[in-house]
Each structure stands twice: as C-alpha cells, then as structure tokens.
Amino acid sequence: MLVAKHSRRKFLWNTGLLITGLLGSSAISFEFENKKVTLLGDSIRKGYQSYVGLFLPDNVAIWGPEENTQHSVHLLANSPRWIKNQPADIIHLNSGLHDIKNIPYHSRKPLVSAELYAENIERIIKYIHFCLPECIIIWSTTTPVNDEKALATHESTQDFSRYNEDVIKYNEISKKIMQRLGIPVNDLYAFVMKADRKLIMKDDGVHFTDLGNELLGEQVANSIRLFIK
Question: Exposure check for the chain: N or C terminus, fewer CB within 10 A?
Fold first, then answer.
C-alpha cells in the first residue's frame, strides 16, 4: 500500500534533485506517447523499480532487467542486451555498490578500481549514445552505506565489505564525468542523506525498506518527468 504523499514528506528535509548538465533545456523535452524508459542498476534499482511507474503517466513503459546489473564491468559487458536490444527514449542508470566491494573483507581494495570505474562508466554512456543517439540519459549517484551495519552484516561470512567513503569517492568521479559529457545527474545519495535513514534504510546498512523504495521510486520518476512537456 502506498503511503499518502503528505505523510511521506515529513520524513524528508528536501525532495529536490541535484541535477547537472542538460536540465532546463526545452529542446530535449518531448511529449510522451507510449514512450519507453529503461532502468539499469543493482539491487537498489530492483527495489524501487516497481514504484517508478506509479508516479508517471500510464502510457510510459518501464523496463529493467530481472537480474542485478552488478558492477560497471558487468554492466558494460551486458550493454548489448540491456541497451542495444532494448531501445528506450530515456535510460536512468547507476553502477557503484558492487564496484566498491572490498574483497577480501576489510581489505580496503575495491573490486573495481577508481580508474577502471571511470573508464567503464564513460564507455557505457558513449555506448548508449552510439546505439541510441536520441535517447536521454540520466545518471544516478550511488546511495549511502552505513559502515557499521554493513560490516556487521558480512562479519560472519567475511565475503566482502563496503565503506561509505568509497561511495563518496566514486560518486564524485561519476559526477565529474557526467558534467563533462553533459549528462544530468539524479543525486540519490544526497536525497537519502537528507531523509530519516532510520525509517527508510534496512538494518543491513545498504538496502531500503518499502517506504524507502517508494520514496526512491518517486524521486527517480521526478527526474524522468523533468524531460516531459
């Protein structure tokens, strides 16, 4: 069940988007007539995806892969089937939480280095431009990690760890690249940081409650709606 909008707002300080790049340009807006939107991302995207369409017109088709798109290497490798073979008018995408996995646990060595991450996400954006030159791209920053809770969640398995300082570092990398490429950024990291995280984040320190997923879904829909006349 959806929570009434006025009651949701009390959990947030500010619902505005920190979006850079092409925002405000009427030249890239278009009227929706059975338009297609693709959502790409990891388990965070899977969590909010079902809510996005609730805040957009009924004739907007939302699609996203059933599987988790994982890190930027995996997203890039699967771009032909998730991008080329799924033409879209708007693509909202993110990669980061799997890139910053530290393996082994406590190693402080991200699975995908910052340099490779930067190269991968730029290649992904350019691949979209190559396959779908008319497609509007919206990049999303990676949502926060609660270090203490995330570490505790994986303490018994010792499989990997995550740290919020890596989230911040990789987000800054992605925002600089998107600014250079003229890609608008939906800053979900800032959005979550301004919310009451006790109410919207799960105890694993990474994922979101139903309320959190609904709020993220609405925020993603808001970023998409900015390009609708």
Answer: N
